[in-house]
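Q: Can I see a sequence and its folded structure?
A: Here is a first one.
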Amino acid sequence: MEFKRSPLFRGIPPEGISACLQCSDSKTTTYQKGEILFHTGDTPQYLFLLLEGCIAICRDSSGGERTMINVFQQSGQLFGEVFLFLQDQPYPCYGVAEQTSKVMEIPKMFFYKPCGKTCDYHTRLIQNTLSLLASKAYFLNQKVRLLSFPTLRQKIIAYLLQQEQANQMITLPMNREQLAGYLGVTRPSLSRELMKMQKESLIKIEGRTVTILQPEQLQQFL
């Protein structure tokens, strides 16, 4: 299965993965579109591993406006790991299925106790978890930097440069609505600014593919 390629299981053979999952009492749950995985204020109980579908992590303002913190749509992606290891810290956000999704849920206590004969694999899994936590900390630092820019154009440019691939081409992992939520702006505002940037020949947009036409000029906005 694709999830076995997840960084969580790096260096663990298939038989070790099966042993760890069985020992941990992990379960697989299917969520329908719009169904909540966990609510704001819930106590974290599981490390979540996406098997298929799309999960959004969101926060609502007092006025009911939704801000999308992150979105997961690749098999094998982990989420919820940061909150899982914070002492007595409830979720400050909620997780919702953007489409029918299948999620593996690994109990928190599996990461706090030895598991007998699979101990070597268990240890490796915990080491992988620590590495992923470090990567998440880096990701969050990058997002804080992105959101600290005062203008929408700067936020867009910073995001595009973070995502940049070969030949200045970017395949966006989110649709317009999701990206607007991630940047903390409205979708119309995001679309207008993207169109302005395209008219100024700074970028070229084709569906979810964005090509940076003038990388040096974009850098000057930051």
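Q: Show me another, different protein.
A: A second, unrelated one:
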Amino acid sequence: MSAATEIDRVQAIVDPIASDLHLDVYDIERRGGTIRITLDSPAGSERGINLDELALATRLISRQMDEVDPIPGHYTLEVTSPG
């Protein structure tokens, strides 16, 4: 499976969760065994993303990725903000 396909599959999982939480997906990348998802507050918003939002997003994304299993093998999920 190509890296682009893996990223596309992860994107399909993350987009609706981020949308429900009123967050934007800033970036999704895979570096070795780490999947890094960067979320931010919506464009034009003056507020930043806070730790509670990141923690909730991490739990929801992790649960959905465990269920769908878009990436074969072991990986570490990292959900972060751009700042």
